[in-house]
Write a structure and sequence with these properties.
Elements lengths: L1 H9 L2 H27 L3 H10 L11 H11 L3 H6 L6 H12 L13 H7 L8 H11 L7 H9 L2 E2 L2 E2 L1 H13 L3 H5 L6
Antiparallel strand pairs: 1-2
Helix pairs in contact: 2-4, 4-9, 6-8, 8-9
Length: 192
Amino acid sequence: MQKFKRNVKIATGKGKEMYLIEQRIEICKLVYKLIKSICRENQENEFYAYNIIYQFQFHAKYLEEAVDCFISIISKNETILSKIGDGIKEDDQKAITALQEASTAPRKSMGIFNIKIVLDQRQELKYTNFVIFFLRLIYASQGTERNKNYIRFLKTICTCDSKGMTINQELLYKLFDQIKDLDKATFIDTDM
């Protein structure tokens, strides 16, 4: 703790603010690693974590550790995997429609140090189904840096113990079919 106080005294102005933001990011990463460890091979903890993890889904856009944690919680729990598409409701259908209409809107990438903006905006964030959330992230990053973590999440929900999760596979197929240009945002064109 002494080292932390000393560094804060040295840093001033924007330097101090950046230092504090970097410290928050590191703490978030450690918390996700801790949650992942607490849930490892413990279905009761996985259920508990899954029920509260929606509160933190906006971190997935910036922290690979958040996506790793989500994947760890759901990947070997067939019950959670079978329910992951349940939350798609009318609001999410509106989000799908908005994604379809936004297919021509310009896109921009946000770096990790814009996290302060996200922290300030989190009150405005409306939590949604994880599938819709990750599809939004994929669609929003179309034409910019693709994030492999979003694809890893979608891949994870399609299998459990080397068996296909048909309910999630069909859900993703329907969503890819419904949302214009989502396939182009997700997959890399290999035609030369």
